[in-house]
Design goal:
Blueprint: E1 12-20, E2 23-32, E3 37-42, H1 51-61, E4 65-75, E5 84-86, H2 88-103, H3 112-115, E6 122-124, H4 131-204, H5 211-224, H6 228-247, H7 252-272, H8 276-296
Parallel strand pairs: 3-4
Antiparallel strand pairs: 1-2, 2-4, 5-6
Helix pairs in contact: 1-4, 4-5, 4-6, 4-8, 6-7, 7-8
């Protein structure tokens, strides 16, 4: 089977870091299983404008998965002016709004450390940064976003390569078990006939019985235990699964559906099994199908 170039898992991690001017930044991108593409982000204050770029970059690369993208930044403020200032107007506002409560003795006069925790009191200092400087810095940081997502994509592709090998081995074993079940199904008809005859002898002893009637009973039981239809459907599902795997791309939902179909047919086959050999084949087939379902859930 030719290996597809784009089979992706849904789990992975990407990271990129760098420095521009006095600011260091780190992007981290994590991905886990998800029914659809769910993008969450965590951005520091002042960088909310990156959200559209995050969504655009993620949707360009991925179709499914739960993604968490985060950015952390840090300024080197050694020997520099503080990067925050106290907004005295906001303090005056809070004091004015609470003056009646203070005068009535309902609350104690506020302390400075308490005031500093109020929204809007501490704010970024106005450094009169040139628009060109900020644009250049943001461009560099966003290049880091692309690098982190590229790393995440590469890791998901590596895991996808591993999943391809797992699926290939799984399908080969399922194919082998279908052939074994086909042989066991033929032997099952003879086993049922012999079992019915043996049971009749045990129950009737020396009493004569009609061989034709016995053959009819054996045929009815064999018909109920016939697994040819299940084997044909299993073979058809296997062909579809191999075609999907060879095609690659976002095949996770289709593989998951086929895994459910495999599960249904393997259950029926095991239920109809009338010999130990066919029962054991059915049980092993069910175990392989369970593995298939687990792995399919991690394919984009």
């Amino acid at each position: 089977m030719v290996r597809p170039p784009s089979l992706l898992s849904m789990t992975g991690f990407g990271r990129a870091e760098g420095q521009v001017g006095d600011m260091t930044w780190v992007w981290e991108a994590r991905s886990v299983n998800g029914r659809n593409l769910d993008i969450k982000h965590k951005l520091p204050p002042g960088h909310d404008g990156f959200e559209p770029r995050i969504r655009e970059a993620c949707t360009k690369r991925f179709k499914r998965g739960s993604l968490q993208v985060s950015l952390s930044v840090k300024r080197n403020t050694v020997n520099q002016n503080p990067s925050v200032r106290i907004n005295l107007d906001m303090i005056d506002f809070y004091l004015a709004e609470g003056s009646a409560l203070i005068a009535a003795g309902q609350v104690l006069p506020p302390r400075l450390d308490g005031l500093l925790h109020l929204r809007g009191v501490l704010e970024a200092a106005d450094t009169c940064e040139a628009v060109e400087v900020k644009a250049s810095r943001d461009a560099a940081i966003l290049e880091g976003l692309e690098a982190a997502l590229d790393q995440l994509l590469a890791e998901r592709q590596r895991e996808g390569d591993g999943l391809f090998d797992v699926f290939t081995q799984n399908f080969s074993r399922i194919d082998e078990l279908i052939r074994q079940a086909d042989t066991a199904a033929e032997a099952q008809v003879l086993a049922i006939r012999d079992r019915v005859h043996k049971r009749a002898v045990e129950l009737l002893g020396e009493v004569p019985f009609d061989p034709q009637r016995l053959a009819q009973e054996a045929a009815a039981l064999a018909l109920k235990s016939d697994v040819r239809e299940e084997l044909d459907r299993l073979a058809a599902h296997l062909t579809s699964a191999r075609t999907l795997l060879n095609h690659g791309g976002d095949i996770g939902r289709k593989l998951d559906f086929l895994a459910q179909e495999f599960h249904r047919e393997s259950n029926t086959l095991t239920t109809k099994a009338a010999t130990i050999a066919l029962t054991n084949i059915g049980l092993e087939l069910k175990a392989l199908v369970d593995q298939l379902k687990e792995q399919a859930a991690n394919v984009e």
